[in-house]
Amino acid sequence: MTPPDGRRGADEDGHWHVTGDVDDFLARAGDFLRSRPAPHTVHLTVTETLRTFGADAYGAEAPVLGRLERAGEVRATFFRTPPHRLNLTPLTPGEADALAARLAGLGHRLPGVSADHGTASVFADAWHRLTGAAPTLSARLRLYRLGTLAPPRPLPPGRSRPAGPRDRERLVRWYHEFAAAVGEAPTEAAAARFAQGRVTLWETPDGVPVSMAAVTPVIAGQVRVAAVYTPARLRGRGYAGAVTAEVSRAASAAGARQVLLFTNLANTTSNALYVRLGYLPVDDFTVYDFAPPTG
After folding, report:
1. I need a labelling partner for 221 at 20 to 30 A (CA). Which of 8, 105, 114, 254 fits?
2. pLDDT, tens only, 236-262
3. pLDDT tens-digit map of 89-125
4. Residue 161, class by beta-carbon neighbours within 10 Å (0-12 exposed, 13-18 middle, 19+ buried)?
5. Chain CA centroid to CA 91, Å
6. d(CA 195, CA 214)
């Protein structure tokens, strides 16, 4: 029987398996993540980074991953790469309760949670009930998928080019500035890895870089545009639109079936820009921070 509050028991909601072994996690949950690659994009890219670069890719503390199994099938997953927030695929209230109880029982202290809006809300409520850690809204995000690309016209003066070794110092600096602007806590390992990744620069006719955009590796036929950044003094000149259009075009030309990106809904300028470029909304996500328990 379902309890009056609509939350089902742990047996009905399956069993959460928690691990630090990314290879074991992907062997068991990889097909589930690839079954819905767009909403699972962050899980796919983060686990691929851990598989490729090792457990310390995001910091010294070991990652934690988990899968929910019911009737022999994976129904949901989570990951956390400390010091970052918990990330979840969609959960029912009962599944969120069961996961919160499992993580609290294992002694985890969570700085926050990020998931689709409904999942983030029910997990934040469950975590608050169990631990006393009050949730505070940090951000509302929207995931977009590229439809028909519409590059800005006219383009600003200059050209795009791939970032190279000579750009490393600038990329590390810009990555830290970008992370601060979006409320993330980058590690040095993440910044260094970013500087060696798939980053495109827009530069002025005299060769001065003025904006950047990165893309994730192709996973499950898709890439995600990430870390679009222009220093504050150079904004409003069309550089971000130009570099985003270029990396989007290049990803599609290279065979990506889907090109995705996230925006913060509080930034109306960037949301309007991506819509003009041809991006279509997929789903909304919510990020909560957890205050330390009181008392």
Report:
1. 114
2. 999 999 999 999 999 999 999 999 999
3. 999 999 999 999 999 999 999 999 999 999 999 999 9
4. middle
5. 17
6. 10
